[in-house]
Amino acid sequence: MDPTISLQRFPEIRWHGHWIWIPEQKIVPAGMFTGNMDTQDESHGLFRKTFDLAQVPDSVPARLTADSRYVLYVNGQEVFRGPIRSQPRRMRYDYFDLAPYLQPGKNVVAVYVKFLGIAKSYWMPAVANSTLGSTGVLVFEADLGDRWLVSDDSWSARRGDAWLADGYDTDANHIAGGVPTESFDARKRQGGWHELNFDDADWGKAQVIVPLHIGGRGRSQPPTDPYGPLLPRPIAKLAGDRCDVAAATVESIADALDCSANNPAERTVTSALMHTGAGQSSATLPLTVTIPAGGYVRLVLDMGRIVGGLVNFSVDAPAGTVFDFGYFEEPVVERSMFGAHGGNRYIAYGADDSHTVFDPKGFRYAIILAHGVSGEVTLRDFHVQESHYPWSSGAAFECSDADLNAIYKAGIRTVALNSWDAFMDCPTREQRAWVGDAVVHQMVHLVTNTDWRLAWHYLELSNSPRSDGILPMSVAGDVEDRGGVTIPDWSLHWVHGVHNLYRFTGDRALVKSYMPTIERVLRWYLPYVTESGVLQDLVEWNLIDWSSLYSSDRSAITTASWARGLREFAEMAAWLGERASQSWAEELFAKVKDGFEVFWDEERGTYVDYVKDGVQQRPVNQLAGALAIVSGLAPTERWPRIIETITDADRLVVRSWAHPQKDEDVPAAMRNHMDVMLRGVLIPNWDVENQIVIAEPFMSYVVHDAVALSGMSERLPELCRRWRQFLTDGYDTIGENWGAGTHVHGWSATPVKDLIFYTLGITPAEPGYGVARIAPRLGDLSWAKGSVPTPHGLIHVSVDENSISIESPVPVVVDLPERPLLHLAAGSHRLT
Hints:
The chain is built from 15 helices and 42 strands. The longest helix is centred in the last third of the chain and has 21 residues, at 556-576. By secondary structure, it is of the alpha+beta class. The chain is globular, with a radius of gyration of 28 Å. Strands 11, 15, 16, 17, 18, 19, 20, 21, 22, 23 and 24 form an eleven-stranded mixed sheet that branches. A six-stranded antiparallel sheet has the order 5-4-7-2-10-12, with no helix packed on it. Helix 2 crosses helix 15, helix 3 packs antiparallel against helix 4 (453-462) and helix 3 packs across helix 15 (750-760).
């Protein structure tokens, strides 16, 4: 997206361009009223349009979208990839300036479109009408000054035969991760098809797709059903650095490859488990190897760290040589419970074999199997062009502790790798936009990135409630498409994200737009409210956290999560002047607060997880007490005692129902993880009387919020040092869980926001940072300094044991230990 292009150059609603698709895939009208609901196969379209220019205008505003994904070229140069993930009825388009790519005389615009067919982790199909929505589709327009260049039936088009050329079964590739798998036969490619001088005389002409349904009016230009009024891209263009191979290992194996699994990634796993001998190592490319007759060569490439983006490679190989690729976070020593996913296959053309894998991948280790033809093969190049949300410069943090500095940088790197066109759970396994996970990504952006657009787009993308008002657990992909089980508390994290919007921007119109959805989410819980005001027997997947906890029966944890949502809704309603909404939420909250006493354990000084048949049960998780504090259900005089209890290192244990530690004594009934997850076989394997289960990295953000609210922010530097365990063996990202899960999960990056919010102490004192609060709490640090973004510019703070320096574009309230609050005007200040 080029921010210099004004959207005013485009028609307000209707496009000049027409929906077009390839001529080989005929559109067969379906039922007039029911629409075409049949699942379609993956398909690929190539499009070209040549035109002449007497001279190049100063700017050529253009916009484009496609179902499902596209790459745009002008005169052979790649211009853009898109569109961003979205629900099909809120489809997004990209806009940009073509002038830098044009020349006087002849020009060509070329577009490759990939239609995914079945729902994937980051794409959900449209509910098609009789003609539009069941196949791929493209619409384009550009303002040349004296005329419009638009998509229509004058464009040359043809099917891309190189993809799925070996009969690859896309349904079989829809593994748990939901990440598309590509198979490309370069022998069938249209070499140079996007170049200016390519001869497309044997191509057909694009067909214009006219929506056929009652009310369609025969118009082939947007807005049309099922995509609605196309919306502009609200976020920046993705970018990133080139990442090269750090080390490579090569094995030449004479045995035949077991090809019973057609999936390329599964083949690489099979080969890794069949042969574990060491091979030859090399630190650099190119690498030349020989494929033995009837055998194969395996190359294991180590990128040195987790990377994410577009895989590029170049090979010299005989025509027909098959390259199977698999992408992994760690060396393969066993099969994953989710299966291998996200691989790709490339069959060599025999000359000029360079390729960019279309769908982005995340990994540290790439395994390449070369087979099918004996002879010499050279891997000339392999690199990843990273493609994630850009970080605008200015924000920074540094302190006297090198470990915390490393954790801070790792947290940003982790969130960056999970900030593509939406906030994701991980780039390596799923690439799904989980509604709950993203609240931590959002807060990391708020303290480290001066571009907050993705932080707020998260709220808009996730604002997609089911018919009962609750949000899908993952949006704009296969999970939302199926409309199945959700994680109700993920919707409550989204509510917290809207509360962040209120605090950090003060945008009344935008906050108000989300209030109806928040109320529907909160009302979803009402049928489960007991006479005492607490929740009981919630349905669906009340995950809360991967740590071992109880969210069934009468649960303190689910009740307090809901109560935090009620309290935040009431606060925003009061700010907006919506008194009826405020009173409704406050009355409910008061009832919950009275009933919540049933969970208080006076002897242990915290709240138990749950009550069953009117009796307190003994298990305690950190989150019962932490959520009681952040929700305001616990009386403030209890807060210090609760924090002392739930942060007592001698009592804390790591336990997870889904990820038992290797040294745990796991009961036999819990050795099948699926029994635990699906049947709720939850048997404590810790001392429930004396031990407390620690929250996993994600929900530690709530624990740390509770510590700060209780006036103990000085303890957070030490608590954050627990994250050092992730930065080993070359990994510079933060993992999913304590001792389990992926190596790069953005939901685990809470130390980044804690070091800013609570250690450096910078937060909004008024909505929209009309006034900032500066409350540094160094703990055991000798100094800390940083620069933090606000809507008004950066706030700079430097603090040590003797002084504090502040430079702020807004007034500040300085809160120092054992000192009265100090109100200062905008500007520069130094206090001793």
